[in-house]
Prior knowledge:
It is a single chain. The chain is of the alpha+beta class. The chain contains three helices and four strands. 39% of the residues lie in helices and 31% in strands. Strand 2 (36-41) and strand 3 form a beta hairpin. It is globular, with a radius of gyration of 12 Å.
Amino acid sequence: MKYAVVYTYPPDKELIQRARPDHRAYLGGLRERGKLAAAGPFTDDSGALIIYEADSEDEAKQLIQSDPFHAAGVFARYQIYPWNQVF
């Protein structure tokens, strides 16, 4: 099942830039394992949308908590939505 997660970033853009390389490497690993459907920041860099492939919401939360952005405090807030891809 897919889980769409909408993230809000903190105003500290330097924090985001410092953590971004590790975050993107982590997402690349998820994609290789089939756990990532899509990801990217909003054009104003206020946050991002990440769509995970997970068996449950608990697994999606584990994927979030393992992300270097989570450890660095970049994920100021997030909301998880089970998502049904139509197209």
